[in-house]
Amino acid sequence: MPNQVQCPKCLKFKTQPYTTGILERESDFLRALVGQRPGFENPRYVTKFKAGEVRAKCDYCGLIFDVNTVVDRSTSSEQPAQSPTIEERLARLEQLRKKGLVTEAEYERKREALLREL
Asked: Are strands 64-65 and 15-18 parallel, antiparallel or unpaired?
């Protein structure tokens, strides 16, 4: 797709020029009124993006990026978080007991339940 800009995060081509100033938005609106597309379908915007004069916003994932944006794809935020180990859960339970946030009976009951998971 020669007249499109690809999102570096989700690799979709559903992007639009991202302008923050009111003058840019007004000029985009006026161009749209006279039939000039204010998006990357207009080669002028692709040229401006490649020159670093305008940023882009992905319609799919919402990332705002410029021509120099690099996304580390090895650590995706879509990966599920690892659950804490039993050791970590026992330590957290101990902290709650020391702070007085759980009673001694609650502490013992939960501790026994965690140890049964081993």
From this structure: unpaired
**What ranges in the chain are assigned the alpha helix state H?**
22-33, 43-50, 86-98, 104-116
| CA dist., res. 24 & res. 63, Å (int) | 20
Whole-angstrom distance, CA of residue 73 vs CA of residue 54: 24
Q: In what helix (H) or strand (E) does residue 15 lie, and over which residues does it extend? A: strand 15-18
Distance between CA atoms of residues 40 and 54, nearest Å? 11
Q: What is the pLDDT of residues 52-105, one digit of tens each?
A: 877 888 887 888 888 888 777 665 555 555 778 888 889 989 998 998 888 999
* Residue 2: pLDDT over 80: no
Measured in whole angstroms, the distance separating CA 70 from the mean position of its chain's CA atoms is: 13
Q: What count of Cα atoms within 13 Å lies in the side-chain half-sphere of residue 3?
A: 9
Backbone φ and ψ for 75, nearest 5 degrees, come out as -120, 75
Of 10-19, 34-43, 46-55, which has the strongest mean pLDDT? 46-55
